[in-house]
Amino acid sequence: MNIIITIAVTALVVLYAGLFKAKKALLPLTLLGLLVSLGFAICSWNQPTVHFGMMQIDNFALAFAGISIIGTFLIFLLTQRYFAENSPNVAEYFTLILFALCGIVIMVSYKNLSMLFIGVEIMSVCLYILAGIRKLNFASNEASLKYFLMGAFSTGFLLFGIALIYGATGSFDIDVIQNVLVNNVSNVSPLFYPGIILMMVGLCFKVGAAPFHFWTPDVYEGAPSLITAFMSTVVKTAGFAAFLRLFAGAFEPLHDFWMPALMVIVIITLCLGNITALYQKNFKRMLAYSSISHAGYLLFSLVVLTASSASNVLVYAAAYTFASIVAFAVLINVKQKTGSDDIESFNGLAKRNPLAALALTIAMLSLAGIPLTAGFIGKYVMFLNVLENYQIILVVIAILNALVGFYYYFRVIIAVYFKEGKEIELDTPMQYKVVLVVSTIVILLLGVYPSLILNLI
Amino acid sequence: MELLILIFLPLVGAIATALFAKQNTAKVAALAFSIFSLAVAIGLLCKFTPDASTQFSVNYQWIRQLGINFHVGIDGISMITVLLTNVLTPLIILASYKHEYKNANAFYALILFMQAGLLLVFTALDAFLFYIGWEAALIPIYFICATWGGKDRIKVNMKFFVYTIAGSLFMLLGIIYLYLQNPANNFELAEFYKLELDSTQQGWIFWAFFIAFAIKMPIFPFHTWQPDTYTTAPTPGTMLLSGIMLKMGIYGVIRWLLPVVPHGVQDWSCVVMLLAVIGVVYAAIIAFMQKDAKRLVAYSSISHVGLIAAGIFTLSHQGLQGSMVQMLSHGINVIGLFFVLDIVQSRLGTNKVDELGGLAKVAPQLAITFLIILLGTVALPGTNGFIGEFLLLMSVYNYHAWLGAVAGLTIIFGAVYMFRSYQKIMLGETNALTASFKDINGTEKVVLYTICALIIVIGVYPKPLLQISDASVQHLLEQINHKLTGVN
Hints:
The complex is a heterodimer of chains A (457) and B (488).
Chain A: H1 2-19, H2 23-43, E1 49-51, E2 55-57, H3 59-77, H4 79-86, H5 90-109, H6 113-131, H7 138-169, H8 174-183, H9 192-207, H10 215-222, H11 225-250, H12 255-278, H13 283-303, H14 309-338, H15 349-352, H16 354-368, H17 374-388, H18 392-417, H19 430-448
Antiparallel strand pairs in A: 1-2
Helix pairs in contact in A: 1-2, 1-5, 2-3, 2-5, 3-5, 3-11, 3-14, 5-6, 5-11, 6-7, 6-11, 7-9, 7-10, 9-11, 9-12, 10-11, 10-13, 11-13, 11-14, 12-13, 12-18, 13-14, 13-17, 13-18, 14-16, 14-17, 14-19, 16-18, 16-19, 17-19
Chain B: H1 2-20, H2 26-47, E1 55-63, E2 68-74, H3 76-95, H4 104-123, H5 127-148, H6 153-181, H7 189-194, H8 199-216, H9 226-232, H10 235-257, H11 262-289, H12 293-313, H13 317-348, H14 359-362, H15 364-377, H16 384-399, H17 401-426, H18 443-460, H19 463-486
Antiparallel strand pairs in B: 1-2
Helix pairs in contact in B: 1-2, 1-4, 2-3, 2-4, 3-4, 3-10, 3-13, 3-18, 3-19, 4-5, 4-10, 5-6, 5-10, 6-8, 6-9, 8-10, 8-11, 9-10, 9-12, 10-12, 10-13, 11-12, 11-17, 12-13, 12-16, 12-17, 13-15, 13-16, 13-18, 13-19, 15-17, 15-18, 16-17, 16-18
């Protein structure tokens, strides 16, 4: 609870600081607020509490909240000049991102379906605005509108699903729902089944799984890069945590019913995301499609539910978050110089900017899943989990997709190291360097010594 | 403890070279580290007792939750490959001395990093660790070849990379499968040996592993990446690939395939033998047609490796012992050949045999060392190639007489294409291009003389070498036979 309060208060303070034109104070205040909330998260570790029957702050919630806060922290470090160049109202950005983070913390710790809905809405409304915050930019407006319409739709599905499930069980509480299911698994009200499917569709929209992914590429491309970074890392992780809490918890007894549907979604997501990413010239769009494919890998943990499903998602999400933040940091930095976010604009980066080039390479290797990076451990635990239940075909499909993945991630590395290009000299601010170095070290550390995070929850 | 030093020394060397070396000191630093690690390897060899046991083992818990241990050790089979890696790496670095590579510190750091990966592969007793080493050796060589290579390097190396990683991902699938079957919940090689899988399972595991190894070696028809990659890579890269890296595949078969899934091997060995022998003949014929000497050596390498693979799958003592010796000999010979071609290329700008000629007149020392290496390659008695090929051919002949006869053609073919190219490059009259050719000097002499000395010493007195792996090979075969007769 402290975490949410701290973040919300920080958001308000930052808003007022913006009102009084204290632009210099915005970033330090935000970072301080985030650090304090991270501190609260660490302090309440292993002390599960339930608040008003609405929110359950257990280790699962804290771990995902922690990853989200760290991710947001790193993204805020990248804001230094970025927002000032894009908009006069910097404080709004800060506040909106912080409020979105509030929604995210609720999403990862809900115990009651109404809280899930509130969390999703708090987060989404902030993101609709953030996607369109470059008011005079056509693509940004398009992104915002698309995201809003699609998001509203998906929220509708989610709400309808919740209503049906309430009708079937008479409760919003996920533990009560689970109990109802456990006690009469063969005799569940027929309302329940469409409820599950509708909620699955709603959540798949939010995490960008195919075939509900159509908004992703356009919104990711049109939104300001930093917001895209936020959406594709922190928001996505939160979506999966919410997904997991519901489907691995409350709906677990009906696994046999919803698993086939999810399996189809997983296979489509993997293949579609990877194969489309192969044809992208624009780096942001490529990352958008690759994020779709990563959603596919993440959903593996729901296809086969085991005791370690949640921990696997955490590992994978952490690996993916850090690698994506590096990718976006380099992208923003390069775009400031070249004005383009095509893969071609990375040509020759290694010559003048060895640090950025190396960090980007390690991030790409991690996203591709090369051993000794965090991404490999993430993929490995997912494969292990699925193979344990003899879903060999699924793993073979995943492996073929991983191969396709190698191909497009290596295109970036090839551009960075082997292509001749304009020798762009980036002026990389200190904060960018910090983000790059820290994220890279975390990627390698989790790759070499994953015991740090495995079975954390 | 010594073994940890052996594995991590090149890694430390790589980091030190990358961070601290300058353009001109990088090669010196890399050479120093590689000679130091050779010294450590020789120290291990002196303390090594040639019995079947695993020595110098180190076993640490690495990733507790996933049952992964950092377990390494050396037996006779590993010893040969460890020696191979540590003898060849300094030679390869020395062979690159005349070249000025851009960003030399990155270049040499990658070579050392690869050495560490290779040593991990050759000593790992934990399947997961083996896989890590397997990939850790691939990434540096990809960057070496794609950064410092020749024309079309990006496309060619992408093919190489995707090819090899495709194989290794299926191997990973196999490893995970074995892990899940293992009641001890770990990746220990010794536990994998104890697994009793039925023959369908063994067949699947066999193919999952075999494809990875076959791509690496490469065995026909998985070889299509190899000639282009060898030709476009910078010479040290070609040497690393052909001299050491392809032995990863052979070692993998011996260590991870034969004893773990003997029934699978037995069921499928006829297919593999057939592929291997087809590869032997097919590659020899293509080598015969090549105009470019580097490509010729690349195809001849496929031909030689085919024979090694065939020998291993006979599951006989001679076959395995032959493959051990031949691994080492082939490594030495092939880097010798590539080095000679590199010398010619760097001086004349071409490796086309038709454009060359008469080099023996202007460069007698090059001619004589080249001849010795060539004799080793075509397995003349008294050179290092002879003992290995003899054992291998004998084992294949014992397995199936006709197959042996066809595989035996490799000696004749090899002699024909090798001597024909020697004749075209070295003999005859000099032409306008070759008249001003300068003979070898400095580091070139050191490298070529060392290689020639190794060729002759091993050729004349191979016994100590054979002894290193003898007991381990014997033990391995007993293990396999025990499993084959024990369960069905």
